[in-house]
């Protein structure tokens, strides 16, 4: 009576095993189908399942250069386009002493030559990551654009990457060097898979590809335009309520270029006013200074405090273009005017003192005359 039960159990186990094998086979096929075309060797067989006929000598050679204008201006936010090019070359191939069993020599030589063709992919860069960096406090790389990627770059091809840079308004003119660290992979070796890989569940076996990762840093040279830069180095003179006075403002060119035909324009707000709003400064070379003498009138009702007058310099640069400097504020203090009552009082006191002095002097003279007359009578 137990024998039928044993047969049933045996059938159940066999059925379960068959289903497990079938599901395993389906999962292998599905996993392979989900991979991309460049990764047909998703399951990397060991060296026991492959043979190496050729070794190639070559790899990608990545270069970088800026396309377009490499000169930028202070305070500018600009896109910089960097072209990366692959000029990798194959220096040669080395035939290795390898063979497969049970394959005719003519057939195996054809397989070896096919592997040599596969080895030519060694000059293709894959999974490129380029991250532009700046070592200068005056240049910032916009974080959202600092990392750029390229899936594949074959030899003889190029790709343009776009980054955004921000240049500080106080950046000195001259040459700057940015850094472009680049990471990529390339095929180091291609091995021909033997028929034994079918036992691993791999269909259509071809090659096992081995990859290496390389890190390089490329220099990116740019420049910031040399321009005149002006600052107020001295202000002399004083202002008082209800009066007009001369204030001398010294402008110094701290930049790297000469300003031709420079003139300064002033904008004053009440309670200050100026007779001349534009004063000529002439040519100002690097490191030179010019003084603008500005007559400023102050309203009698002006508060006693510091006031600012806006000024900017218009000039012609080295390219013959008319430019305007940044706005510069001229700080001038307004002092309290002397009271008219105080002046009248002082004048009155001085007049009174003078009058008293004259009266006393006159009385003294009369006394001296009287004494002289009485002396003569006694004689």
Low-confidence stretches: 1-5, 21-44, 197-203
Total helices: the number is 3
CATH architecture descriptor text of the largest domain: Sandwich
Kindly report the average pLDDT value.
83
Write down the CATH topology of the largest domain. Immunoglobulin-like
- First-to-last CA distance: 191 Å
The percentage helix is: 10-25%
Number of strands: 22
Summarize the topology.
Blueprint: H1 2-34, E1 50-51, E2 54-59, E3 62-67, E4 71-72, E5 77-86, E6 89-95, H2 105-119, E7 125-131, E8 139-141, E9 147-153, E10 158-167, E11 174-193, E12 207-224, E13 230-236, E14 239-240, E15 244-253, E16 259-267, E17 272-274, E18 278-284, E19 289-298, E20 306-316, E21 322-324, E22 328-335, H3 340-378
Parallel strand pairs: 4-12, 14-22
Antiparallel strand pairs: 1-11, 2-6, 3-5, 5-10, 7-9, 7-11, 8-10, 11-12, 13-15, 15-19, 16-18, 16-20, 17-19, 20-21, 20-22
Question: Describe it for me?
Answer:
The chain is of the alpha+beta class. It folds into two domains: 40-224, Immunoglobulins (Immunoglobulin-like, Sandwich), CATH 2.60.40.10; 230-335, Immunoglobulins (Immunoglobulin-like). The chain is built from three helices and 22 strands. The strands form five sheets. Strands 1, 4, 7, 9, 11 and 12 form a six-stranded mixed sheet that branches. The model is unreliable at 1-5, 21-44 and 197-203 (pLDDT under 50).
């Amino acid at each position: 009576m137990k024998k039928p039960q044993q047969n049933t159990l045996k059938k159940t186990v066999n059925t379960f095993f068959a289903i497990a094998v079938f599901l395993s086979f389906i999962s292998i096929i599905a996993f392979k189908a989900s991979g991309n075309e460049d990764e047909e060797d998703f399951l990397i067989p060991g060296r026991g399942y492959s043979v190496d006929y050729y070794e190639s000598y070559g790899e990608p050679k990545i270069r970088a250069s800026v396309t377009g204008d490499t000169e930028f201006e202070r305070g500018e936010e600009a896109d910089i386009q960097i072209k990366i090019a692959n000029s990798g070359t194959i220096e040669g191939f080395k035939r290795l002493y390898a063979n497969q069993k049970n394959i005719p020599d003519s057939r195996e030589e054809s397989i070896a030559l096919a592997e040599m063709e596969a080895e030519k992919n060694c000059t293709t860069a894959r999974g490129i990551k380029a991250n532009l960096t700046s070592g200068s406090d005056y240049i910032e790389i916009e974080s959202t654009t600092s990392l750029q990627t390229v899936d594949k770059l074959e030899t003889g091809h190029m790709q343009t990457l776009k980054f955004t840079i921000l240049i500080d308004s106080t950046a000195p003119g001259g040459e700057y060097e940015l850094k472009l660290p680049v990471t990529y992979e390339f095929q180091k070796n291609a091995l021909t898979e033997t028929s034994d890989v079918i036992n691993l569940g791999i269909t259509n076996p071809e090659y096992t590809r081995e990859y290496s990762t390389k890190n390089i840093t490329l220099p990116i040279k740019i420049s910031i335009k040399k321009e005149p830069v002006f600052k107020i180095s001295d202000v002399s003179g004083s202002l008082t309520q209800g009066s007009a006075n001369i204030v001398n403002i010294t402008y110094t060119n701290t930049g790297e270029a000469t300003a031709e035909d420079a003139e300064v324009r002033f904008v004053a707000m009440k309670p200050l006013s100026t007779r001349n709003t534009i004063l000529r400064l002439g040519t100002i070379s690097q490191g030179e200074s010019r003084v603008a003498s500005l007559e400023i009138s102050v309203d009698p009702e002006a508060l006693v405090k510091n006031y600012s007058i806006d000024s900017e310099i218009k000039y012609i640069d080295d390219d013959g273009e008319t430019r305007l400097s940044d706005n510069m504020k001229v700080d001038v203090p307004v002092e309290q005017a002397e009271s008219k009552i105080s002046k009248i009082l002082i004048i009155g006191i001085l007049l009174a003192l003078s009058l008293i002095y004259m009266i006393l002097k006159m009385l003294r003279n009369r006394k001296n005359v009287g004494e002289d007359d009485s002396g003569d009578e006694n004689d």
